[in-house]
Amino acid sequence: MTQMIFTDRTVMAELMARMLWEIKAVHFNADKPYKFASGMASPVYIDCRKLISYPRIRSTIMDFAASIIVRNVGFEQFDCVAGGETAGIPFAAFLAERLNLPMIYVRKQPKGHGRNAQIEGDMKDGARVLVIEDLTTAGGSMFTFIDAIRAAGGIVDHGMALFYYGIFPEAVERFANRKVSLQYITTWREVLAVAKEQKLFDDKTLEEVEAFLNAPLAWSGWNGGISELPTN
């Protein structure tokens, strides 16, 4: 197993937040909110896919992810790591290497027929699978992949998101109801804290972002977006 960096979760969260700002993977814009495919209006945007282009940063983040998994779940609790098409695939490869585990990936839609129509790679029946995504908002896309793995005979009790929005109570309920424990490294709260510390934006922008994090659906509704999360 590759050597991992063991450190406090709050330190890892802050360091990853700093890395995201350093590579310009996160953006704040309260005057012209971002409009997501879900219909939500948001003053914040993140692109975790950029991480794959920065070897030193991605290596450290995968050390963090592996550390969180072995500390919170255990050393021998998984038989393989699964990434979701497409953003989760490279991170599944990186994490599988860290944990010395096989890797599979899961398609968004079945290709062909049969139990493993959405699964690429070799997943044994009853395999204990760790599903990793680059980020999760409220868990919707992650459960597309979890459901496919479960339908194919795999066991999924844990998910890993490098970045977790951490602002929707619905997400907490969804993971609890579907019996999946979510592990993650950092959230928007840590990203905002770094932005405040480094004075990256004016006070009004920071206040608007904080207002969004405190009441995201209300903020979205006030700014022309949806005021309820999609059910999927």
TrEMBL record:
Keywords: Glycosyltransferase, Magnesium, Pyrimidine biosynthesis, Transferase. It holds the Pfam family Pribosyltran. Its EC number is 2.4.2.10. Its cofactor is Mg(2+). It catalyses: orotidine 5'-phosphate + diphosphate = orotate + 5-phospho-alpha-D-ribose 1-diphosphate. It is an enzyme of class 2 (transferase). One of its GO terms (biological process) is pyrimidine nucleobase biosynthetic process. Pathway: Pyrimidine metabolism; UMP biosynthesis via de novo pathway; UMP from orotate: step 1/2. Coiled coil: none annotated. Orotate binds at residue 137. Residues 63-153 form the Phosphoribosyltransferase domain. 5-phospho-alpha-D-ribose 1-diphosphate binds at residues 107-108, 111, 113, 133-141. One of its GO terms (molecular function) is magnesium ion binding. The keyword Cell membrane does not apply. NCBIfam families: PRK00455.1-3, pyrE. Homodimer. Catalyzes the transfer of a ribosyl phosphate group from 5-phosphoribose 1-diphosphate to orotate, leading to the formation of orotidine monophosphate (OMP). PANTHER family: OROTATE PHOSPHORIBOSYLTRANSFERASE, URIDINE 5'-MONOPHOSPHATE SYNTHASE. HAMAP family: PyrE. Belongs to the purine/pyrimidine phosphoribosyltransferase family. PyrE subfamily. This is Orotate phosphoribosyltransferase. It comes from Rhizobium multihospitium.
